[in-house]
Amino acid sequence: MELGIIVLVIIGGLLLFIEIDKLKKQVKSQQKQIDTLCEQTGNNQLATYHISDEDKELILHLKNSGKDVEAVKKVREITAMGLVEAKQYVDTL
Known about the structure:
By secondary structure, this protein is mainly α.
């Protein structure tokens, strides 16, 4: 009896995890679509990955000071970028 309940809880947890993963992918896709629309309409400040000029200067200063990790953290704090995307952004500055 207890084993059956444990198995059901594990299966339920896996199904929940799969559903959450699908929803995360859907949200990310919609964010990309919104960002594209913002870029095309000239409303970059509304985009998910928008970084203001002041923040860009701070990030560039951190990078030039040899504080790449702090620069990447700042990019991730300001935007919804993942670690790899933020690192690539800092590297291109």
